[in-house]
Amino acid sequence: MDGFAVVDIGCESEGTLPLSAEEQLNLEAGMKLTIYVVRRWRRAKRLFLARTPLARALSSLDDFVADGQTPYRATVVGGPNGDGSYLLDLGCEDVACLPASDPLVVTSSVPLIAGKVLPLVYVIAKQRFNGTLNVSSERRSSPRERMAALVADGVTPYEGVVLRRNSSGTVLDIGCEAPGLLLAGGERGASIRSASKESGSAPSALLLPATDIDAELPVGARATVYVWHKSTHSGRVYVGLDPRPKPAMRLEELPVDGITLLEGMVTKVSDRGVFVDVGCELLGLLSRSEMDADDNRLDRLRAGDLVQVYARRRSAAFGRLSLALDPEVMARLRVSEVRGGGTATYPGVVVSVQYGKAFVDFKCEVSGMLPEEGLTHGDKVIVSPLVFDTSMDRWRLSLVKEQVPLPEALQLLQHDGGSAREVNAAYAGQPQQRKQDQKLNTEMKDDLEQKVQGHVLQVEESVSSTLGTGCLEPQGVGAFPRPAVNSKGLLQSLVQAGLGRPVSRTDIYYTAEAVEAGSWKASVSLPWTGLATDTPTSAGDSSLDCTRRLTFQGEVYKRKVDSEQSAARRAMAALQSGHRGCE
Predict the structure, then answer these.
(1) How do beta strands 306-315 and 320-324 pair?
(2) In whole angstroms, how far apart are CA 500 and each of 494, 539, 541?
(3) Is the entire prediction scored with pTM above 0.70?
(4) What residues does the S1 motif domain cover (predicted)?
(5) CB 265 within 8 A of CB 306
């Protein structure tokens, strides 16, 4: 009898590997296997595995057209499920779902078995937040509307048909690739609708009392609804029974500066925070994970409450709008106001660490991201923006060390008091100091012209863990910024020149161990061959011994990456002076 094995592949979800009777006898718990992920079912958090690769790579969810008219070939891979539906393989990385109500299932005299090839099917709905493709065996007479074309202004009417109801609310087919969701208001539904109608600006139409659902909107009923919110990233669409008092703003039109007061109404309270409608196509979130979040104030909010908030960050790519209860001291920077290319530094706070990336709030309308580098939530950092990633709607950053006090010549450029005229007058009264500063600026400018171009090209081409870990000098008013020193990158170039060939991953590797008080001590290991000599080895020299290694210890630092940079500096100094370190 065939069975299956549960396999840990280092993912948040375990995988299921089908096994024959013979394979079951040969496998034991703890054995390591080479397997391939052939499809996934995100709604059930399941991965389907295979021992051999597919003949052709799978397509992504976004490659499928959910217009109800484009045909696709399908093969049954599972079912019937608890609700009578079947799972289908369309050649997508996510499985498709054929509902029990489909004519193909209803008219079939026997259950559909795994491996059965079906007639052509048509994708009628695509839900990105749970990776589901809903299909039908019947072709629609008219195409469905794309998510991007859906007007989420709250005043454009759409005809909807009730598909089903669940704990979240009522799901309606509105002729779009994504269904609309009318939230259930529960016991507070009636009072919220009453209060919102009196205020004239709250999202009452999003909330329907649970006791009224069966009477007003049974399954199959038709209703005119209005799209109040949508997120093209998650594929969620929220609809209302009533239109907005005035059309909703697009995300691009909303002032995300942290100082503009916005009036809104609470639509939902969850463990993540409080969701607020501020008259925008996206719902805003008062997150509990923010450093300045006040749980006591958030806990007092209830669905239907009117609240005053300020928009602090937005992400069109991920459909997010971050709010705050208190205003900022100064207006946040717009994307166009941020200086990129590694030519400026900004203070920031790590607001999230996920999947090896640290996300930083540096007082801009969008956040930034950089390699984790041992950072944790709440860490205060100084970052340098490199390039704006339009696909992520975020700045790619590099991490720099804390700034040191300014040289005396540059301190005059950051005079604490008085108007610009007073500062200039005070500065003009010191001719000798002025000549020294002019000479200093000329030297810095000449140095910058020779180095900064190569540095900017380097950081844009490779955003790795070695970027931006050198110390940038303070950026005073009128000062010329100097590029960071990337010792690990310079060491790689030195080793490559010594070996006479491109450096491979096994040529240079770093190790680090935790020492006292949470500090780190790192070391770097290099190939022994010819690196301590002044004469580079010739490419392809097969007589060279590449098995011996050189090891250099770095100094102890609070951050692992700083200790790695220290080890790289010591390695360069030793190689350039002819010493071999520890063999």
Answers:
(1) antiparallel
(2) 10, 5, 9
(3) no
(4) 259-326
(5) yes
Higher-confidence residue of 464 and 5: namely 5
Please state whether beta strands 180-184 and 132-136 pair in parallel, antiparallel, or not at all (unpaired): unpaired
Distance of CA 20 to the CA centre of its chain: 40
pLDDT tens digits, residue range 352-406?
898 889 999 999 999 999 998 888 888 999 999 999 998 889 999 999 865 444 3
Longest Cα–Cα distance of the chain, Å, equals 99
Per the CB < 8 A criterion, the answer to whether 350 and 377 are in contact is yes
For residues 199-230, one letter each, b for 16 or more C-beta atoms within 10 angstroms of the residue's C-beta and e for the rest, the string is eeebbbbbbbbbeebeeebeeeeebebbbbbb
The per-residue pLDDT for 407 is 43
Long-range contacts from 121-124, C-beta under 8 angstroms, 24+ separation: 121/71, 121/72, 121/73, 121/74, 121/88, 121/90, 121/96, 122/68, 122/69, 122/70, 122/71, 122/72, 123/64, 123/65, 123/66, 123/67, 123/68, 123/70, 123/72, 123/90, 123/96, 123/177, 124/66, 124/68
Write the single-letter amino acid at 345: T
User: Residue 538's pLDDT is what?
Assistant: 38
Q: What is the pLDDT of residues 442-467, one digit of tens each?
A: 554 454 444 434 433 333 333 333 33
Residues in the chain: 583
Cα-based angle 311, 312, 314 (whole degrees, multiple of 5): 85
Through-space distance between the first and last CA atoms of the chain, rounded to whole angstroms: 57
Residues 6+ apart with CB under 8 A from 484: 342, 384, 398, 400, 455, 468, 469, 470, 471, 472
Residue 188 has pLDDT above 80, yes or no: no
CA–CA separation, 19 vs 436, rounded Å? Answer: 79
What integer pLDDT is reported at residue 573 of this predicted model? 85
**What's the whole-number mean pLDDT along residues 467-491?**
50
CA–CA dist 205, 67 (Å, integer): 28
The per-residue pLDDT for range 53-90, each reduced to its tens digit, is: 988 888 888 889 999 999 999 999 888 888 889 999 99
Q: Rounded to an integer, what distance in angstroms lies between the CA atom of residue 60 and that of residue 566?
A: 43
Determine contact, residues 388/414, Cβ cutoff 8 Å: no
Extract the runs of DSSP E, i.e. beta strands, from 232-295. Answer: 236-240, 262-269, 273-277, 284-287
pLDDT digits (tens, 9 = 90+) for 335-353: 999 999 999 999 999 998 9
Contacts of 26 (CB under 8 A, 6+ apart): none
